[in-house]
Specification:
heterodimer; A: 241 residues; mainly alpha; MetI-like fold; 10 helices; 78% helix; elongated; B: 266 residues; alpha/beta; Rossmann fold; six-stranded mixed beta sheet; four-stranded antiparallel beta sheet; 10 strands; globular; binds adenosine-5'-triphosphate; binds magnesium ion
Chain lengths: 241, 266
C-alpha cells in the first residue's frame, strides 16, 4: 500500500526527487550499489562490515554479560558491588561512550565494537540476573528435597529457568546494538551501512540514502526473526511454567 | 518404624520494619508411620510454615523436631514435597521430571527408566512420559509431581495444598488417587488443605489450626480415609457421620474467622 503511494508520487511527479527519491530511482541506485558499488565499496561489503561489528560486539557482550548477571543473581555480595555500577551506566545511551572510546582506541573498528559490547553487556547482565532471581522458590525447594546438591540445583534448575529471560535479553540487545551501530557508523566509520548513507548524502545520492534505510530496516527485522526462531527452537517452554 | 515428633515448636518471623509475626506457637504432636495427617485452618495460621519446617527449608526459632529420633536440620530425600503448582521443571519432559531425584543421585539407566515408567503408570500417565509438562492439564501435572516425589521413595510426603488449583471433578479423582497411593505405599503423609471436606476425607488424623499465634486448635481421629479406600467417596461424603463432622469443623472455623474480624475491627 505504502509502496503504491510511493510509486504513484514518483510517476505523477508530486514529490521533488532531490528531497525524496521515488522507488524506481531507488531500485536503480540499489542495483548499482549491489553490482558496481559506490565509492568503490559494494553493498555486500557495507553489509558485511556492519554485521561483523555487531556479531563481535554483541557476541562478547553476551558471553561476558550472562555469567556476570548470573553471579550477581546468585551472590548478594557481588550484587551489592556491581548493582550501583549497572544502575548508573544502564540509562546512558551507548553512543555517549563513543568519544571516550575513540580517545582510547583511536578511529577504526575497535570503538564501535567496544560500544556494542557495552550495549549488549548491560542488557545481558540485567536479563541474566532477573532470570536467576525470578526462579520460583518451590522449584528450588523441590530440587533440594529430591536430593540435589547446590551445584546440581544451579546447573539443573537455576540455569534452565533463567534461559527464557536470557533469550529475551538477547533479542532486546541485538535490536539495540543494530540501531546503535548504524548511528555510530554515521560519524566514525568508512564502511558499514551507516557510513554508506552518510557518504551518499554528502554526494547528494539521496536514492542511495533511501535504499540504505530500507536495507537497514530489513536486516533489523531479519535479526529479530532469527532470535525469535532460536527462542522457539531452544526454549519452547517459555512462559509456560 | 518412622515417627515424626514435634515438640514445643515455635516460629517467629522478624519483619524488616522491626516487628515480628508469631507464625507458630508451642506446637507439639507425634505422627506415627503410615498415618495421613491433614492440616486445616484459616489463611495465615502457619500451615505452610509448619510444613516448611518439617521439610527442613526453615529452622524453627524454638522447640525441636525429630524424624526417627534424628533432628531435622535441612532438606533431605527422606521427606518429599508436593506443591500446589508450578514446581515442575518445565524444561524437562514428564519422564525426566520423574527421574530427576534418581538422576541427581547418580542413578541413571534402564533400571531407573523402568521404575519411572512404573510410577507413571501408577499415577495413570503411562503413555505421557515423552510429553512436555506444559502440555498437560493441571490435574495431570499434579500426578507428575506425585510420581516425581515417589521416585525417591521418601518416608514422609509433605503436600501444600496439592489440589488447590484443580477444578472440583479433577480434585475428587485426585483425592482418590492420593488415598490409593497412601494405601499402596504405606507412606506417612502430611497434607495442607483449605477444604474442610478434603481434610475430613483424606485425613485419618486432622488438625484444625488457629492463627495469631499459629497453633493447633483441635485434633481429630477420623475413619473416612480408610473407608474411602473401599467405599464410594460420594456416598461417604454424604453420610451422616461425615456431614456432622463437617458442620462441626465449619462452625469452629467460622468462629475463628469472626474473632479475626472482630480483632481487626477493634
Ligand atoms: N517469610 C516470611 N516472613 C515474614 N512473615 C511470614 C513469612 N512467611 C509467613 N509469614 C507469616 O507467618 C504467618 C503464617 O504464614 P503461613 O504461610 O505459614 O500461613 P498458611 O497457614 O500457610 O496460610 P495460607 O493458608 O494463606 O497458605 C502469616 O501471618 C504470614 O504472614
Ligand atoms: Mg500456605
Amino acid at each position: 500500500m505504502l509502496f503504491i503511494i510511493w510509486l504513484l508520487s514518483e510517476a505523477l511527479g508530486i514529490a521533488d526527487p532531490t528531497f525524496f527519491p521515488g522507488p524506481i530511482e531507488t531500485i536503480q541506485g540499489g542495483w548499482e550499489l549491489a553490482t558496481d558499488g559506490f565509492q568503490r565499496v559494494t553493498l555486500a561489503e557495507h553489509v558485511f562490515a556492519s554485521l561483523r561489528r555487531i556479531l563481535i560486539g554483541f557476541g562478547i557482550g553476551v558471553v561476558v554479560g550472562v555469567p556476570v548477571g548470573l553471579a550477581m543473581g546468585l551472590n548478594n555480595t557481588l550484587r551489592a558491588i556491581f548493582d550501583p555500577l549497572i544502575e548508573l551506566f544502564r540509562p546512558v545511551p551507548p553512543l555517549a561512550f563513543i568519544p571516550l572510546l575513540i580517545l582510547w582506541f583511536g578511529i577504526g573498528e575497535t570503538p564501535a565494537v567496544v560500544m556494542l559490547f557495552f550495549a549488549a553487556f548491560f542488557i545481558m547482565v540485567i536479563a541474566a540476573r532477573a532470570g536467576v532471581t525470578g526462579v520460583r522458590l518451590s522449584k528450588v525447594h523441590a530440587a533440594y528435597s529430591l536430593g540435589a546438591s547446590k551445584q546440581q540445583i544451579l546447573r539443573n534448575v537455576i540455569l534452565p529457568n533463567a534461559l527464557p529471560e536470557i533469550f529475551v535479553g538477547m533479542r532486546v540487545a541485538i535490536g539495540v546494538c543494530w540501531g546503535t551501530l548504524v548511528a555510530a557508523e554515521l560519524v566514525g566509520a568508512q564502511t558499514g551501512l551507516g557510513a554508506m548513507i552518510w557518504t551518499a548524502r554528502t554526494f547528494f545520492r539521496n536514492e542511495l540514502v533511501v535504499f540504505g534505510i530500507i536495507i537497514i530496516g530489513v536486516i533489523g527485522v531479519i535479526l529479530d526473526l532469527i532470535m525469535r526462531k532460536a527462542e522457539e527452537r531452544f526454549i519452547p517452554w517459555r512462559g509456560r511454567g | 518404624m518412622s515417627n515424626l515428633s514435634v515438640d514445643h515448636l515455635g516460629m517467629i518471623y522478624e519483619l524488616p520494619n522491626g516487628g515480628s509475626v508469631e507464625a507458630l506457637k508451642d506446637v507439639s504432636f507425634d505422627l506415627e508411620s503410615g498415618r495421613i495427617l491433614t492440616l486445616l485452618g484459616p489463611s495465615g495460621c502457619g500451615k505452610t510454615t509448619l510444613l516448611n519446617i518439617i521439610a527442613g527449608f526453615l529452622a524453627p526459632t524454638s522447640g525441636s523436631i525429630n524424624l526417627n529420633d534424628a533432628p531435622i536440620t535441612g532438606p533431605g530425600q527422606d521427606r518429599g514435597m508436593v506443591f500446589q503448582q508450578g514446581a515442575l521443571f518445565e524444561w524437562l519432559n514428564v519422564a525426566d521430571n520423574v527421574s530427576f531425584g534418581p538422576r541427581m543421585n547418580g542413578n541413571e539407566g534402564p533400571e531407573t527408566d523402568a521404575m519411572v515408567q512404573d510410577l507413571l503408570e501408577t499415577v495413570g500417565l503411562g503413555d505421557f512420559g515423552q510429553k512436555a509438562v506444559y502440555e498437560l492439564s493441571g490435574g495431570m501435572q499434579q500426578r507428575v509431581a506425585l510420581a516425581r516425589c515417589l521416585a525417591n521413595d521418601p518416608e514422609l510426603i509433605l503436600m501444600d495444598e496439592p489440589l488447590g488449583a484443580l477444578d472440583a471433578l479433577t480434585r475428587e479423582k485426585m483425592q482418590s488417587l492420593i488415598l490409593e497411593l497412601w494405601d499402596r505405599t504405606q507412606k506417612t503423609i502430611v497434607l495442607v488443605t483449605h477444604s474442610v471436606e478434603e481434610a475430613l476425607f483424606l485425613g485419618d488424623r486432622l488438625f484444625v489450626m488457629a492463627p495469631r499465634p499459629g497453633r493447633i486448635e483441635r485434633e481429630y481421629e477420623l475413619p473416612f480415609a480408610k473407608l474411602g479406600l473401599t467405599e464410594d467417596p460420594r456416598e461417604l461424603k454424604n453420610s451422616p457421620e461425615f456431614t456432622e463432622k463437617r458442620e462441626e469443623i465449619l462452625s469452629l472455623i467460622w468462629e475463628m474467622e469472626e474473632q479475626i474480624m472482630g480483632h481487626e475491627g477493634a
